[in-house]
Design brief:
Largest sheet: 7 strands, mixed
Strand order of the largest sheet: 1-9-8-5-4-2-3
Helix content: 25-40%
Order of helices and strands: HHEHEHEHEHEEEEEHHHEEEHHHHEHH
Bound molecules: pyridoxal-5'-phosphate
Oligomer: single chain
Strand content: 5-15%
Radius of gyration: 23 Å
Shape: globular
Length: 426
């Protein structure tokens, strides 16, 4: 029965459980234990004091991150969602300002904008890098636009040169959500370090993690200090620190603990190795899938390296003769862990109903907000088409992706492709 599709009762290609991806080892256990034994689980003080900048491990992790990413400032936070909020506050967002953002991302990229009572405007993506399409950015710029929030999704950078050029011409700030792309490079620079502010998520399903956590990176001294203030109760500190610019200085507690920082220090040392193993797995998979008609494998731009947080693909139904969802179902039946969607953030209820803070439509319904922003289906045709028809992806940080695992995934694809004519009949 090996030749019959598992969808129709044949044997599955993958009959074993793959080994869970686990980046945590003896070094992290040792580092965390040392913190526990010290009794100092956090050393932040929310007042103007040397400990305003955090404890020994927090500061050590930040210096190590600066060295790793070759950037002037690294600022740890308790999640990357917090990091995005701090970044937007630091660039001086005003209520009613518009920020152009990708719809093809995790929801926090867009909702971080709402937290400052500013308005997310969704530009479309392009289907090669899955990053913001520079032409669509231009179409969405208005007199209210303050910033561009670009996302380096799946481990590959957006077209940063074009995005930075647009920002310069229109006097906009750029924030890079590089949560999924730590260690990826664009023209020799690390993802996240090209924009005014970038950064990484350290949640438990990213390449490296600390349970929860995030790292902000910037080369700008002023933005760095503002983010450190927002991270740690700015309003209580500004007077003693002598801060004159009070814009967005109502702070938060976004502080990272010493245990997380101690784990982060060890994780960072392993990042290059984790990326290398994802890249090797991805290249093997590319070799096995590259000749399957109607299947588009990931593009790696000439001037980029891909961190392969995910392995994104597209199915062209006009070539396969069957739908993406039929192929997806057949692959699932063979035992492949694979997804047939990602995100169309503009279609979430918060944007469709325009209800964020309170019940009266704030911040869209406010005197600060100058124009009506459309979130209807149709505003991002590329992202919508990917979601509805063609996109399919394998997460690269769920399982170890050993040579054997990847070979089985490749064989599952080859089997399904050899039987596409059978799917056609259904
Ligand atoms: C994971 C992720 C986030 C959120 O990071 P957290 O650390 O979970 O808050 C934001 N944007 C993208 C693209 C992500 O993948």
């Amino acid at each position: 029965m090996l030749n019959t599709l598992a969808l129709y009762g044949g044997d599955r290609v993958i009959d074993q459980k793959f080994k869970k991806y686990n980046s945590i080892g003896a070094e992290e256990i040792q580092a965390a234990t040392e913190v526990l034994e010290s009794g100092n689980l956090s050393q932040f003080l929310g007042c103007w004091d040397p400990d305003f900048y955090g404890g020994e491990r927090v500061q050590k992790f930040e210096r190590a991150s600066e060295e790793f990413f070759k950037v002037k400032h690294a600022i740890t936070v308790n999640s990357w969602t917090s990091g995005l909020i701090a970044a937007l506050g630091a660039i001086g967002i005003e209520p009613g300002d518009e920020v152009i953002v990708s719809p093809w991302t995790m929801s926090a990229s867009a909702t971080a904008i709402l937290h400052w009572n500013a308005i997310p405007v969704f530009a479309d993506i392009e289907s090669e890098t899955y990053g913001l399409d520079p032409i669509s950015i231009l179409k969405n710029i208005s007199p209210q636009t303050k910033a561009i929030l670009a996302v380096d999704i799946f481990g590959h950078s957006a077209r940063m040169d074009e995005i930075m050029d647009i920002a310069q011409i229109h006097k906009l700030k750029v924030i890079s959500d590089t949560a999924q792309s730590p260690g990826a490079t664009y023209k020799g620079k690390y993802a996240g370090t090209i924009a005014d502010i970038g950064g990484f998520s350290l949640n438990y399903h990213k390449h490296i993690h600390t349970g929860e956590g995030g790292i902000l990176v910037t080369n700008n001294d002023e933005l760095a200090e503002k983010m450190r203030l927002i991270r740690n109760h700015a309003e209580a500190v500004v007077e003693d620190k002598g801060v004159a610019d009070l814009v967005n200085m109502v702070g938060f507690n976004f502080r990272m603990g010493e245990i997380e920082a101690a784990i982060g220090i060890e994780q960072l040392k392993k990042l290059n190795g984790f990326i290398k193993s994802r890249q090797e797995a991805a290249h093997l998979l590319m070799t096995m899938l590259q000749d399957l008609p109607g299947l588009k494998i990931p593009t790696v731009s000439e001037d980029c390296t891909h961190a392969f947080y995910a392995f994104p693909m597209q199915i062209d139904q006009s070539i396969t003769g069957v739908t993406r969802d039929q192929i997806h179902a057949a692959l699932i039946a063979e035992g492949v862990r694979i997804s047939n969607r990602y995100q169309n953030i503009h279609l979430l209820p918060v944007f469709q109903k325009k209800i964020a803070f309170g019940s009266k439509g704030f911040p869209w319904n406010s005197e600060f907000t100058k124009r009506d922003i459309c979130y209807e289906k149709g505003i991002c045709p590329v992202a919508e088409d990917l979601q509805d028809k063609s996109f399919i992806a394998i997460g690269m940080c769920f399982t170890e992706m050993t040579f054997e695992e990847v070979t089985l995934i490749g064989k599952s694809f080859q089997k399904v492709w050899s039987k596409l004519h059978l799917l056609k009949k259904t």
